[in-house]
Design brief:
With about 260 residues, the chain is an alpha/beta fold. It has eleven helices and eleven strands.
Length: about 260
């Protein structure tokens, strides 16, 4: 593990034109509070600044406020490099590999419903079509066939959502999963799939921006029904939430200014 970490930091040092891994360890990294990127920074012993979103982390690097950022690979693919919002930024090594899932309240039958929709849309090809629309098709996880929804006999979140007529989705601004391009409408792979689930429930999807660090509190307080925003299925997340099956592969990567 130590050899792997040393090689990783040395590789990043070389990408930044440094001569030693020790020099790279002295950098300050911008990370989203409560994110897998923050966890990766802590695990590697990096000095970091916690910011409100991954988009803010990129702004920190672009402005020179932080030396580097740790963000999701899928976001890096959409936001940095030629033809993007940050053409002068690049990503170097992958710190972790991980999977995305959707988070519901612990014990909620909504996770079972989402799994059934994932299964159905993967089988008919519409999940893949949505993934291609946002350029995440290579990250898509194959879904189990013929998954059936199992409704709770008591305290069914699915029944409560259908009764109130809205599915409240907790998100952050995170391309290509949830973001605004023109106007006020949220788009992205996650946003589109949340609407598919809402449509099948016979309700309207309502998107609410949340503080990512407070996602569990928002969920348990009933302010949102689901966290659907490229959420990494960490042990902490799966212990505190009822999560869907994994639907996308991802990694945490280090973003630095291009040479």
């Amino acid at each position: 593990m130590m050899k792997k970490r040393t090689a990783l930091v040395l590789g990043m040092a070389l990408a930044l034109g440094m001569t030693s891994a020790a020099a790279a360890e002295e950098l300050t990294y911008a990370v989203e509070a409560g994110s897998a990127g923050e966890a990766a920074a802590e695990e590697n012993g990096f000095s970091y600044n916690s910011v409100a979103s991954q988009a803010d982390a990129l702004m920190e690097v672009a402005s020179g406020t932080s030396d580097a950022a740790i963000i999701d690979l899928l976001m890096a693919g959409a936001m940095i490099g030629e033809g993007t919002s940050y053409p002068d930024l690049v990503h170097t090594d992958e710190l972790t590999t991980e999977e995305y899932g959707v988070g519901c309240r612990k014990g909620s039958d909504l996770a079972s419903y989402i799994n059934a929709v994932f299964s159905e849309t993967y089988a008919d090809g519409s999940l893949q079509e949505t993934a291609e629309k946002y350029g995440v098709q290579d990250a898509l996880v194959e879904q189990e066939a013929d998954v059936e929804f199992v409704q709770s006999e008591e305290n069914s979140d699915v029944a409560a959502i259908q009764e109130k007529g809205t599915l409240i989705v907790g998100i952050t601004d995170f391309a290509p999963m949830d973001y605004k391009e023109d106007g006020d409408e949220w788009i992205g792979f996650d946003a589109d799939m949340a609407r598919v689930v809402a449509d099948k429930l016979g309700v309207t999807a309502e998107f609410v921006e949340i503080d990512w660090d407070n996602k569990l509190m928002e969920l348990n307080a009933g302010n949102i029904d689901v966290v659907w925003n490229g959420m990494t299925l960490t042990a902490e997340v799966t212990e505190s939430m009822e999560c869907s099956n994994a639907y996308c592969n991802n990694a945490q990567v280090i973003v630095v200014p291009a040479e």
